[in-house]
Amino acid sequence: MTQKKMQMEKISGPQNIGSEGDDLYEHFRFVADKGQSPLRVDKYLMNKVENATRNRIQKSAKEGNIFVNDSVVKSNYKVKAHDVITVRFEHPPYEMLLTPEDLPIDIVYEDDALLVVNKAAGMVVHPGHGNYSGTLINALAFHFDNLPNNSSDRPGLVHRIDKDTTGLLVVAKTEEAMAHLSKQFFNKTTEREYVAIAWGAMQEEHGTIEGHIGRHPKNRLQNTVYLDQDDLDKGKPAVTHYKVLEHLGYVTLVSCKLETGRTHQIRVHMKHIGHTLFNDQRYGGNAILKGTTFSKYKQFVDNCFKVLPRQALHAKTLGFMHPTTNEFMRFEAPIPQDMEACLDKWRNYSKNSIS
């Protein structure tokens, strides 16, 4: 990132705190919900900032880096409805210090306006807290010059998928393509189909899961579904359409089509209906959720976990209108080898062991 760009990210501190707020860079910004009950700002940030510890947050407060409504606060400040909470430091966010890296990218399509990438498991899409290198954005910055920035200053990125989810992403190469593609995702006119292995024998062959998705109130690393009218402001509307592809005894292979694109949407929605994704560690799918108590079965599942050491989720199909030609384009990425190997194990097990 150029020095000019870095200066654009620098913000001036509020007038009422003098020099304390000058020349600081904003790292985090949150606006408290209208239903927010009084809560210490250190606890509030613990629930909002992934991987942050309370000691680290309290240290930041002592050093004058936590602001509420543009005023420095101590760690015991009680956050209330509509407060604007920011965390600012003298150095820019590490994710803005983008270092190009010569990393392999599986490009399935490319033209002057865009490219479609088949992301491997284990690759984070963009730099963020705890992942400042080795990401898809680091790789794109090495292989392509002058990619347009999205609204979060992430070059080329139109949408994203989780670190351990495999599959298709479209990347914009021009400002026009960025605007056109982003509008399609906003208007929900893109086609996105995932395939997943879920715990349990699903009774309904197809269905729709609806429910606002927001941060889990007790586990800050998870999201959850909010259905009560009074809680809807804690999340954003989310809709997932699913269809059973294959019954495999104690697990089911399903197709999930996204109508919206919330963080962890499929993982959260499937858990909500009682079918947590297989080996999804964050949401408890790395435990034996369905099946027998036989030791041989436990060994079988452990072997499946070793074959597929991540959540069983793959972004298989991606469709969108080309921003230049207005032609609808659809791409498919085959189920990756680790997930296919796990499926084969379940096919053999269900055929031989479950009546």
Describe the structure.
Residues 1-21 have low confidence and may be disordered. The relative contact order is 0.11. The termini are far apart. The protein folds into three domains: 3-92, RNA-binding S4 domain (Structural Genomics Hypothetical 15.5 Kd Protein In mrcA-pckA Intergenic Region, Chain A, Roll), CATH 3.10.290.10; 100-186, 2-Layer Sandwich (Pseudouridine synthase); 191-353, Pseudouridine synthase. α2 crosses α3. The protein is 23% helix and 27% strand. The strands form four sheets. Strands 8, 9, 10, 11, 12, 15, 16, 17 and 18 form a nine-stranded mixed beta sheet that branches. A five-stranded antiparallel beta sheet has the order 1-2-7-4-5. Strands 3-6 form a two-stranded antiparallel ribbon. The chain has 355 residues and is an alpha+beta fold.
